Amino acid sequence: MNCLIVSGGLFEKVKFDKKYDLVIACDKGYLYAKKMKLRVDIVMGDFDSMPMPKDAKNIIAVSSIKDDTDTGLAIKYALANNYKNIDIICALGKRIDHTIANISMLKYIADHDGNGRIIGKDVKLIICKNKKISIKKEKSSYLSIFSLTDKSKIKYIKGTKYDIKNKTLSNSFPLGVSNEFKNEKAEISVISGTILVIVVKKDC
């Protein structure tokens, strides 16, 4: 099942490539969701960036004294309710610490057998752990790959300007930065480890 999480970072109106069974708005993300005229099933957060909404039907309020971010709690809620495909929007920009926290939660999704993406106006961040994925070509975009684990063993990356085969990436050296699409899709096979795939427009 598919879940969309609207976070409270930089507002960006994005295009969706799937339908969602569950939509969770995190704190200020509720205002963003309304701005985009999205259906909201649950509003979740500590409401430190906006008052608790009076027009929301289903609210899960949490204390501001907590270990998780609001987005992290929403991700855990989705996984606990068997939503394995989780897209997150409005999760970039503004605070760099929250951006890094959201990327960390992508790895959390992968570690719990889910598929996670952060989608922005000009960028997509996709997680891949121990499996094969295909990335559709985006016009005038870079394709960068980073290891989130100490090492990630790559069986192949193909359909790109710089294909590789049987290569180990390290999280201490950005070997996979600024690749480009050659075919209509890039194919990536990860034997072991977790990688972050970033597709970003060249002129952004």
What does this structure look like?
The chain has about 200 residues and is α/β, with parallel strands linked by helices. It folds into two domains: about 1-120, Rossmann fold (3-Layer(aba) Sandwich); about 130-200, Jelly Rolls (Sandwich). About 15% of the residues lie in helices and about 40% in strands. It has three helices and 14 strands. It has helices at about 30-35, 70-80, 95-110, and strands at about 1-5, 20-25, 40-45, 60, 85-90, 115-120, 125-130, 130-135, 140-145, 150-160, 165-170, 175-180, 185-190, 195-200. The strands form two sheets. Strands 4-3-2-1-5-6-7-14-9-12 form a ten-stranded mixed beta sheet, sandwiched between helices. The protein has a four-stranded antiparallel beta sheet with strand order 8-13-10-11, with no helix packed on it. The mean pLDDT is about 90.
